[in-house]
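[recover] target loaded
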């Protein structure tokens, strides 16, 4: 997941999935608890009246009352002790607070209802299968019995007390004030209990139980129980809370996704500002393989390249000023001496010496310009198939006149080809072999071989070699290991630096070791195929594998 869009979008999607799962689980959990409270509240008034009917009864009276209630409700009702019920701590606590306790049965269709009786240590237990019309009529009968046990003048006071126990309202209304159809009025006239369902399309839809109270022919009174509202599985309050929590989690998820990106961008911005202010040591410490991490890696590579170029430029400036000083001084001294020459032959010798100094200065400038082009990263390299053996043999022939008694050999494979620039490949071999000739005793050998898709070129000499701790130093411009390696031997200290840069631009590597003759061995490893572009970074892999 390297794409910033994918990371942010994926984070939001995961957050929404988590929100959905948590919302569903939360709603189910809350609804289970709300449903339990709802059923307890609906049953509280009924069981309060049932418990009150046991007040003052002895054992036989309680049994008779339990039997009567069983017939009335159509469900088993009995008075039991707490020990026989095996009450849990929660149940005992709720019953002590005069609350209804519901126990679900394994069949899922039956519920056991518990309520504390006025008699200490006894509890009312009823097993109800489901809410039925018979239970509604039984509750209405209990309410009427409660009212009729009191004078009519105190009925309103009694209803007010019952309303504190019931989970739905109980009111006395005149029949004329109720919106009833003819069938409902007829049934009330026959002293029947009527169940009335209000408009089911309304949010506050519910069931009302209408119970005739007296038979006043004029305008009889009716006990209205309810409305008993249906249980709302998804109340707007709960949905609002879930929506707010969803938005909050999305915001938090987005923040957690974006904040690390902002932090990384700030680090990159600070590094860029440091570089802009002239701090060449600016470094963006931003790990990762995402686009920001890749930009940071590119930035670090750019700063390293700029720093290396500036350092190389400074080093080059110092070295060039030093290297040019000697031939210029010799030219000035030669010109001064030329004026003191008395004979034509002496003047001719001085002019020849000046001409050699000018040639030396010209070669030095050419080496400096070549190295500068390679170091600046703008060489005109044209890749094409090259027979390496051909270049080796051509170079051996070119050096025939200057090698003296030192033998130059070409060995190894004859048909090796690679993608490269013939001019620069020739320059590599020329500089390596020329360097070997300076320090060889009697032999120099160029050996060609292949390793997989790479071409290996070894240049060996039988000189005294290069100490291991100084092998990396020889590739620095104008570097000389000791006094024996100086301009008098024909070098300027740039040949191996040029070789290193050309090899880099070909995506290869160069190594120094000891030859089998005890001298130095320079090994050049080049890829056989190029991608038609200059990728300096490839050389690292070649160096590691080589």
């Amino acid at each position: 997941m390297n794409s910033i869009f994918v990371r942010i979008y994926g984070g939001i999607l995961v957050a929404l999935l988590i929100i959905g799962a948590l919302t569903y689980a939360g709603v189910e959990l809350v609804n289970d608890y709300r449903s339990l409270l709802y059923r307890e509240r609906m049953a509280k008034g009924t069981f309060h009246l049932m418990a009150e009917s046991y007040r003052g009864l002895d054992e036989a009276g309680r049994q008779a009352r339990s039997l009567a209630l069983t017939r009335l409700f159509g469900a088993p009702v009995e008075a039991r002790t707490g020990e026989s019920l095996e009450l849990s701590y929660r149940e005992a606590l709720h019953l002590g607070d005069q609350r209804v306790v519901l126990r679900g049965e394994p069949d899922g269709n039956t519920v056991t209802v518990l309520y504390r009786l006025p008699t200490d240590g006894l509890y009312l237990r009823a097993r109800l299968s489901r809410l039925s019309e018979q239970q509604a009529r039984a509750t209405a009968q209990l309410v009427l019995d409660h009212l009729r046990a009191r004078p009519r003048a105190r009925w309103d006071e009694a209803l007010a007390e019952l309303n504190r126990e019931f989970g739905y309202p109980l009111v006395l209304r005149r029949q004329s004030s109720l919106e009833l159809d003819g069938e409902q009025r007829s049934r009330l006239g026959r002293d029947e209990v009527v169940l009335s369902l209000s408009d089911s399309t309304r949010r506050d839809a519910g069931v009302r139980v209408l119970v005739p109270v007296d038979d006043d022919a004029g305008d009889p009174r009716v006990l209205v129980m309810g409305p008993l509202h249906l249980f709302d599985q998804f109340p707007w309050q709960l949905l609002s809370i879930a929506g707010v929590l969803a938005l909050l989690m999305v915001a938090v998820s987005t923040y957690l996704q974006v904040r690390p990106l902002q932090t990384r961008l700030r680090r990159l911005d600070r590094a860029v500002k440091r570089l802009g202010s002239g701090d060449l040591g600016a470094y963006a410490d931003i790990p990762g393989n995402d686009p920001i991490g890749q930009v940071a890696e590119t930035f670090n590579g750019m700063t390293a390249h700029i720093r290396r170029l500036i350092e190389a430029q400074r080093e080059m400036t110092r070295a060039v000023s030093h290297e040019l000083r000697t031939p210029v001084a010799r030219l000035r001294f030669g010109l001064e001496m030329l004026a003191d020459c008395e004979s034509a032959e002496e003047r001719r010798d001085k002019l020849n010496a000046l001409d050699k100094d000018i040639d030396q200065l010209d070669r030095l400038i050419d080496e400096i310009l070549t190295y500068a082009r390679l170091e600046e990263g703008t060489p005109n390299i044209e890749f094409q198939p090259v027979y390496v053996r051909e270049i080796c043999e051509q170079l051996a022939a070119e050096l025939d006149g200057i090698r003296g008694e030192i033998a130059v050999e070409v060995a190894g494979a004859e048909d090796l080809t690679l993608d490269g620039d013939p001019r620069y490949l020739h320059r590599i071999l020329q500089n390596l072999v020329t360097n070997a000739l300076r320090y060889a005793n009697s032999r120099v050998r160029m050996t060609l071989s292949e390793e997989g898709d790479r071409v290996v070129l070894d240049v060996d000499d039988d000189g005294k070699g290069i100490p291991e701790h100084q092998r990396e130093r020889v590739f620095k411009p104008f570097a000389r290991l000791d006094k024996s390696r100086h301009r008098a031997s024909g070098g300027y200290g740039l040949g191996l630096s040029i070789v290193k840069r050309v090899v880099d631009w070909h995506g290869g590597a160069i190594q120094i070791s000891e030859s089998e003759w005890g001298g130095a061995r320079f090994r050049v490893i080049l890829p056989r195929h190029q991608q038609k572009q200059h990728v300096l970074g490839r050389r690292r892999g070649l160096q590691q594998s080589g």
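[recover] notes: Confidence is low (pLDDT under 50) at residues 483-490, 533-546.
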